[in-house]
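>> Question from a student workshop board

For tomorrow's exercise we were told to take the sequence and the ligand below, predict the bound structure, and bring the output to class. My setup keeps failing. Could a helper post the expected result so I can at least see what it should look like? The ligand is oxa(dethia)-CoA.
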Amino acid sequence: MTIRAVVKGIGHYLPDRIVSNADLEALVDTTDEWIRTRSGIERRHFAAEGQMTSDLATRAALAALADAGLEPDDIDAIIVATSTPDLTFPSAATMVQGKLGMTRGFAFDVQAVCAGFVFAMANAQALIVSEQATRVLVIGAETFSRLMDWKDRSTCVLFGDGAGAVVLEAGTGDGSNADRGILAIDLHSDGRFKDLLYVDGGVSTGATGKLRMHGKEVFRHAVEKLAQTAHTSLGKLGLTGDDVDWIVPHQANLRIIAATAHKMHVPMDRVVVTVQDHGNTSAASIPLALSVGRDRGQVKSGDLIVTEAIGGGLTWGSVVIRL
Ligand code: UT7
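>> Workshop helper replied:
Here is what the output should look like for this input. Compare the format with yours to find the bug.
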């Protein structure tokens, strides 16, 4: 008998305000055509004034709990993957815990930037298989609009706000690839690349700072490392891209998504793509894509999916899940 972390519920939340590429043309020297052709992005959502990451996270959490048929106090642990917590501390996760009215369990944040959800799933799986928790709420939530330098056209057109969540619950399987739940994980980071994608603020500067990115270099690393990590996690199971029902990738750039799928020999009709509607929502992008993909009737129970992401650090990794 093998303990598995099984997906019991999925949900998401997007703030009401939609900002189109045309809206951004009025703000910086850019064009809808450039943004579409270089990134695939057509629009993104921005949080309202006063609407914080923990607010988005709580809405996504409630949607995932409702989907699972569970109440907040049924949950043992909350993990929020975010690089945009409301405050330096306490964690966004404890804020979500408070907003959900939970008085039991424990909550903490995971910070691995755009790869955060993959790292958070790995943490949740470890809590479940070590029997420290039976049900874990894993949330990716971000308000990257607040990290944008509105004078830097090379970054400010790329990011958006949102949140997605899954409820993982302990289940049992026979240890085979037919089991439901998280089947394999592959995680990496390499701090030598810290200057490729970072925020130029924090406690060392006394200000939050703005996002800085060497897009071309990050692009190059992404195309190489994402296919590699997916190959590694699938390889642990003796599987390849041919066995995958859906890739649910981090949504940063349609060209990266397509290049990774191509390297994995997976056609684009087996890839969930939401980047056109959400932009890059960092740690929120995978659970958002999973939830939207489910709502569209793409991913469904029993499907074998692989998620992969890369972000500042650099951090990258992948998770193979049977839904
Ligand atoms: O989620 C974390 C991981 N992040 C990513 O995966 C992002 C990775 N990088 C990318 O997605 C792409 O590199 C970008 C979308 C950021 C940029 O695409 P690119 O094809 O690498 O373009 P580039 O940076 O080489 O820029 C090409 C040109 C430049 O002009 P010159 O120097 O060739 O004359 C830029 O100044 O495009 C110009 N440019 C713009 N033009 C119109 C840069 N930003 C804009 C803009 N509008 N918003």
